[in-house]
């Protein structure tokens, strides 16, 4: 017994990470109509700064490349974060990903990742709502926050739109969820697109936060879902519509909700405290 204890102590000294294994995150990118070469390192850095995660990056071939060669080993990770909005993956990669989430793997969709794969049914079920990619009412209803609850709206039309980029107020709609617990009810998000009129299967949406899409910024005049979660098989999914570019990603609100969302998708829990510099309703805070 004494010898076993001694070996364990030596192991802990040699490998401090042994004491609390970090959560393995796979960030997927490689194609996006957004500047993924700039934003992926930001996503990796803000996750690793928590001390909770190690992040590997799987970069697909560029558009026109051989997508059959892109087959990330999803199953080696606890959670996949997507910064990908490009051509369809191979059937094999899609099947691997579906199997991964169904079996309990976490998935986090960041901003334009919800523009990807309009024809991939399981993916759209995971993200619940998506935009662009020629999405219309055929891809499902919109979801709006009206009279205190999230409702679907099956009016025909395009899926996905945003007005002028601006800083806007986020409103927490569930303060008991691990991702939003302890965060202010209202907080200012820095210079970003405010996605509206997303469409999709819209099934089992657990709404965390909305933002008001004002008509004077080119929006809908409705409260739009911004942060939401669901369960797909045994897997947890967190969808953040925020994060158009590096500027938007400087927002402490974006950073903290991403850090928490990734931990929750991976483990079902959030151990991170709300940061002291989290924005309030008055002004944005940046890092
Ligand atoms: Zn964007």
Summarize the structure.
This protein is an alpha/beta fold. Helix content is 23%, strand content 26%.
Describe the structure.
With 287 residues, the protein is of the alpha/beta class. It has one domain (22-267): Class I glutamine amidotransferase (GATase) domain (Rossmann fold). It is 23% helix and 26% strand. The protein is built from six helices and 13 strands. The chain has helices spanning 2-14, 36-48, 91-102, 121-127, 246-249, 252-267, and strands spanning 23-29, 53-59, 79-82, 106-110, 142-146, 149-153, 161-162, 166-172, 186-192, 195-196, 206-213, 222-232, 235-240. The strands form three sheets. The protein has a nine-stranded mixed sheet. It has a two-stranded antiparallel ribbon with strand order 5-6. A hairpin with an 8-residue loop joins β11 (206-213) and β12. The mean pLDDT is 95. Residues 34, 111-112, 193, 244 line the site of zinc ion.
- Distinct compounds present: zinc ion
| Biggest pleated-sheet summary | 9 strands, mixed
Specify the structural class: alpha/beta
- In terms of DSSP E residues, the strand content is 25-35%
Distance between the termini: 49 Å
Write the layout of secondary structure elements.
Blueprint (H helix, E strand, L loop, with lengths): L1 H13 L8 E7 L6 H13 L4 E7 L19 E4 L8 H12 L3 E5 L10 H7 L14 E5 L2 E5 L7 E2 L3 E7 L13 E7 L2 E2 L9 E8 L8 E11 L2 E6 L5 H4 L2 H16 L20
Parallel strand pairs: 1-2, 1-3, 3-4, 4-13
Antiparallel strand pairs: 5-6, 7-10, 8-9, 8-11, 11-12, 12-13
